[in-house]
Amino acid sequence: MRREYLKYLLPLALGACPLVVLADAQSKVATNEAESAAVGQKAPAPSGDVVARVGDQDIHFSEINTMLNSSAVVGLSIPALGSPERDTVRITLLDKIVSANLIYLDALRKGMDRDPEYRHDMQRFENAILADLYYREHLVGEVEVSEAEIQAHLKENIVEGTELSEELRASIEAMLRKRKVEARQAELRGTLREDAEVSVYQNNFSPEGDAGREDAVVVAEVGGETITWREVKDRLIAAGKGAVRRDPLAMELDARLSALQGEIDIRLLAQRARGAGLESDPAYQKRVDEYRKTRLINLHRSRLASGMEPGEKELEAYFEANRAEISIPEFRKVQMVMVKTEEEARSLKAEIEAGDLTMYQAASEHSVAPDAKQNLGELGWIAQGKTKPQLDQVIFALQPDEIGGPVEAGGLWHLMTVQDVRDAQYADLDEPATRKQVRRRYIHEKLNDYVVELRKNEFPVQVYEDVLIRLAQQEADMVKTLSAQSREPGSVTQERIREMQKLLNP
Fold first, then answer.
1. What is the pTM of this model?
2. Residues 484, 32: contact at Cβ < 8 Å?
3. Which of 322, 427, 432, 464 is deepest in the core (most CB within 10 A)?
4. Could you report the per-residue pLDDT of 432-465, keeping only the tens digit for each?
5. Cβ proximity of 28 and 10 under 8 Å
6. How many whole angstroms separate alpha carbon 85 and alpha carbon 6?
């Protein structure tokens, strides 16, 4: 039977954060009608796999799936293709992408794409990508290893009579190719600088002048471009300190010069790449566009967060208002015996403390709890404040190996012991871990509120539910078809299963 995918998905309403799944189709219809009345008729969904639009930014189904299949998405699992769990994660990711696009559009509106730090980051990224393209395509290129070279290496370095298996051939070929690449790399710097004008001003990046050096100081000139101290100071300082850390006799200035030479090589390669027209390379343009957007989002989010730092009073007030959600109470792993009378409870306690009876035996043989014989009185982890007050008071005052009770609760008398303890967390704002957690949560909520306002008042958000449902259903149908094909006699899957069985059961 064909499974209906995302049947009750709610389109992202203006001001709704995050996306949710409705309980039934009637609620969905009512919500859609109310939304249409409130914000007007939506434009038809564009063709292709565009499932949402934020302002002028399209969100593609393939973009969500790329994130969905990436283990780098923090806090989200990677559900199996065609599973209902995949829909849930897909909706969560869609909301994250919508929020990121809102931050991006807000950054553009505020002119952050003209920010010097952002422009510097973009220039460095573009240079690095262009340099890599030119290096691979025009300097190193495809490194070929001939059959004659493989046979010569085999004859000179491998024991005579050794069979040239496919694995050995691949290993020799990889090693020879690596040697050729390294040889070309050794020639690279000389090749790069044959026709380029390069000037290095060593006094402008020596360690002695760091304290008073201005960012605009020129440390090198490369083919008509200048490299300033601001552009390279972090890398040069790190290179110098790292060299001295590894070898106390190393010269910090030499390490800085080596790092600067690497930056000069990148600039020269990038210049040649631009001269060769590699800026029009589709792969380059795609990577730059992706980085441009991601970097601007991260920069704007970081600066927004910096402006939302709470003062001491704000932090304290926030902690008190949200203590129940922030703090994790103490947990104790409890074993308990329940009997009908106080006299029986006291008698059992005396036997246990005398060593004549264990808590396990008391639970199995005397406890009136319905499942005592199965679990031997082990109740598992209990959070402080989550059981009856009279029991809670005793449980969370017990010392290891101490028998608590008898305590009356619910008409029965209880004996208990604590098997393990998990300490409370984030309960005291004076503790550094608690303060860090509270601060992070405070800023996160402020950022969420900011994004909600953007969604409500600044940039239109549309979700094309029909496209999302259709593409998700196509994925589910594909998985169902492939699964059925894999079970057919003679399929690749069945052949591999038989081969594996032969290996396991020769």
1. 0.73
2. no
3. 464
4. 999 999 999 999 999 999 999 999 999 999 999 9
5. yes
6. 11
Question: Can you read off the two tokens belonging to residue 337?
Answer: 């015996």
Q: What is the 3-state secondary structure (H, E, C) of 114-182?
A: HCHHHHHHHHHHHHHHHHHHHHHHHHHCCCCCCHHHHHHHHHHHCCCCCCCCHHHHHHHHHHHHHHHHH
Asked if residue 61 lies in contact with residue 443, where contact means CB atoms within 8 angstroms, the answer is no
Distance, in Å, from the CA atom of 482 to the CA atom of 356, rounded to the nearest integer, reads: 64
CA dihedral 374, 378, 384, 387 (to 10 degrees): 40
What residue type is 244 in one-letter code? V
Cα dihedral 333, 339, 343, 348, rounded to 10, equals -50
Residue 19 has pLDDT above 70, yes or no: no
Reported as a single tens digit per residue, the pLDDT across 283-327 is 999 999 999 999 999 999 999 999 999 999 999 999 999 999 999
Q: CA–CA separation, 63 vs 42, rounded Å?
A: 23
How far is residue 444's CA from residue 423's CA, in Å, rounded to a whole number? 26
